[in-house]
Hints:
Blueprint: H1 12-15, H2 18-23, H3 44-50, H4 55-59, H5 62-76, E1 81-82, H6 89-93, E2 98-101, E3 105-108, H7 115-118, H8 130-143, E4 148-153, H9 155-164, H10 172-180, H11 182-206, E5 210-214, H12 223-229, H13 231-242, E6 248-251, H14 259-264, E7 269-271, H15 278-285, E8 290-295, H16 304-317, E9 324-328, H17 338-352
Parallel strand pairs: 1-4, 4-5, 5-6, 6-7, 7-8, 8-9
Antiparallel strand pairs: 2-3
Helix pairs in contact: 5-8, 8-11, 9-10, 9-11, 10-11, 11-13, 16-17
Amino acid sequence: MNANVRPSGPPTQTYDSAFLKACRREPVPHTPVWFMRQAGRSLPEYLKVREGIPMLESCMRPELVTEITLQPVRRHKVDAAIYFSDIVVPLKAIGVDLDIKPGVGPVVAEPIRTRADLERLRDLTPEDVHYVTEAIGMLTAELGETPLIGFAGAPFTLASYLVEGGPSRNHEHTKALMYGDPQLWADLLDRLAEITGAFLKVQIEAGASAVQLFDSWVGALAPADYRRSVMPASAKVFREVEKYGVPRIHFGVGTGELLGLMGEAGADVVGVDWRVPLDEAARRVGPGKALQGNLDPAVLFSTPEAVETKTREVLDAAAGLEGHVFNLGHGVLPTTDPDALTRLVDYVHTQTAR
Ligand SMILES: Cc1c2[nH]c(c1CCC(=O)O)Cc1[nH]c(c(CCC(=O)O)c1C)Cc1[nH]c(c(CCC(=O)O)c1C)Cc1[nH]c(c(C)c1CCC(=O)O)C2
């Protein structure tokens, strides 16, 4: 991203929002805040509108997506919205037989483990996800100056669901393929990079003013394996959307040893979980990138005083950063008290007001 060139995309007020400024490492009026998995989860207004509608179906209804995406912005006054969807939506859209099981996560009917399986993954066209374009059009009209973050799953994390057939603790089938048939693995990740790149383009062209690539499970890999077997595909996704000039955020869990490489893959903003303090993360990532994070989401179950103390630690560690977007170190946990999130946004805003 060239920070000196204003891209043609977002309207001026959105472009000048605290969130996009922090991503571009420009001075901000206050540290911007948003939460991974802020839409959905525990909000009573979310549970009400989702009643009786399966998760994947709700992702295909533009009015519902618009309402759910707006709910946390209205309630918590966060500095950015994240598009309500799931990382497996583009796979579903190209015909992969999968479902999202409540309390479990994505489950794939026929796992992908052979070359013949790989042939089933066709390219994604904008028509496959026309509801995304429709929903983002409605959303940007409603959001006004608040930026909308588009997102996708990174090739490794998507491959893990496809190869395992569902959520996995050890990723054993995924690693078996990665080490046992490096060519098939590389081709699988390359195909997923194309699908992911196409999905992010749809969101940016519809009006998303930043994108986040979730590589949630990549922390299962050692740096040498990441560099050899995963980074080329993630870098391809970032290159695909480079021309739009919107900030590209890259996040994973347990990635302390990978932070430098994840920045190198082409991110403008590197997401950090709660295990590495942000000043140390900045040393690992190096200059020229903003950081996002990193309050432990479990801290929100503690007392208001403890939340403030732990938040203060995050802000102190972030004091010398070139750009900081406040977030949790992973997604909002399902039983989090929504009021604790609202208080947290307010605390960060008042503590960092300049
Ligand atoms: C790994 C991953 C997935 N999905 C996602 C990731 C990356 C982020 C992360 O690491 O947490 C990303 C995601 N999934 C969802 C969003 C919506 C926007 C947001 O709130 O940030 C986002 C950004 C909605 C969802 N995605 C899912 C729900 C729950 C749906 C339901 O229960 O009906 C929602 C609101 C389902 C899902 N989908 C997935 C999981 C692990 C689950 C949870 C299973 C469970 O505990 O119920 C895969």
